[in-house]
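Reopening: structure tokens for the flavin-adenine dinucleotide complex, inputs below.
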Amino acid sequence: MPDVLVAGAGPTGLLTAFELERAGVDVLVLERDPGPATQSKALGLQPRSVEVLADRGLLAAIEPHARAKLPAGHFSGVPIDYRDLPTRFPYQLGVEQAHVTAAIEARLRTPVLRGAAVTAVAQDDEGVTVTAGGREHRAGWLVAADGGHSTVRMLLGAAFPGRPARTSLVVADVTLAAKPAGLAEDWTLPSSGSGYLLPLSAGRYRTIVYGEEQHRLGRDAPVTADEVRRALTAAHGPDVVLGEVLWASRFGDASRQLERYRHGRVLFAGDAAHIHLPVGGQGLNLGLQDAANLGWKLAATVHGTAPDGLLDSYHDERHPIAARVLVSTRAQAVLGVPAPDAAAVRAVVTELLAVPEARRAVAAELSGIGVTYAGVSGRADVPAAPDGRAVLIGAAVPAGWTGRVEGREGAAPRLVRPDGYVVWDGGPGLDEALRRWVGAPA
Ligand SMILES: Cc1cc2nc3c(=O)[nH]c(=O)nc-3n(C[C@H](O)[C@H](O)[C@H](O)COP(=O)(O)OP(=O)(O)OC[C@H]3O[C@@H](n4cnc5c(N)ncnc54)[C@H](O)[C@@H]3O)c2cc1C
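Re-run output (same inputs, fresh job):
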């Protein structure tokens, strides 16, 4: 019997499973789809996600697939310079999401169980029983990372307040039968406007289509080649001729967040916990950070070493971060509306974002580099312990302490949580920090 079941083999579920496994926890990932994802919703990793993946030795397998290192993010298409961010990776890594998930999955010890859609969840004092693919699975805990339409969320009747979708957009990967000589073959930022074309690998292009037609058609209408063709012609004129639509999907601008990320022995992460318009490149990154925050806390809980309140600190720390992203993406959506007053707001916001202080604040937020939590003094530049333990640098592990902490030589004294955040940086307070984040001494 695994210690933890994870519903969903998207980026959030896979990184959660990786985090748990490296901390010595037995995990089984249950995935609805029969095979690994081949299509990519997201095309970029924000700097904090690149740090997290690099610290875990996962970046090396992702980087060869990257199309670009973009030295900027964007706020609804307004470029936000990242070059002075305090990180080794002051850029967005332009890479298709499917390469990110493949790289993480390749490092899991226990293979993902596919064709295993979760259909029922029951929990009691000792654990959870999950029905998936017609079979019952039992474990101590369930992580629900089954995406924006989360079945687990519905089965539990978890409150998911927010705003319903008011419009819908189309994402499509296409080939072109004809294109103008000047069509950019490099990734540049910002790419915006309905019908923009971003080159992917193997002669494919990504386009996003939105406007009156998509608004009228609504979320459930199938995407047709004619619809995509009309949008490309409207954006580029007759020089761009659609070849084939290889993949297309509609998505909405609903904005919702779970009231509570923990429901007894079920913890929600990623899109299962929060949904918003995918503008500014935030969703995948939020999910990866949720996983990095939850993994070690749940592992300590499974091992019986977690200090009181550690697992609940997952909700306390991560809920406000996604709540802020929901505000930011709603604001960005307003800027993107094709209306005269929206254009006026965009002009003013563009001016304001040219002010260095404002630009730096927004860059810190979009990149994830500015994310911080109560009691945290910064991010560490040291790799996490391979087995997901906290790392104590430049100080002796106090006598009697056999908790999950690894001692390391180094100049500046620091206690680094397994997710890379510094919770003590010299002076008094080491015992208290260890007690709060690592657990009581043996
Ligand atoms: C067009 C578009 C562009 C985007 N661009 C970006 C971007 O540039 N940057 C960015 O950061 N984010 C972007 N996003 C958002 C990003 O793709 C998502 O936030 C991200 O995929 C969330 O990851 P997840 O693992 O939480 O959920 P998902 O990726 O949705 O994965 C959930 C998994 O659960 C599985 N599942 C579903 N139901 C069940 C069930 N009942 N039982 C078992 N398994 C189940 C699914 O098959 C899936 O594999 C974009 C989204 C869209 C739609």
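Residues 4-161+256-367 form a domain with the FAD/NAD(P)-binding domain fold (CATH 3.50.50.60). The first strand starts at residue 4 and ends at 7. Marking as resolved unless the reporter disagrees.
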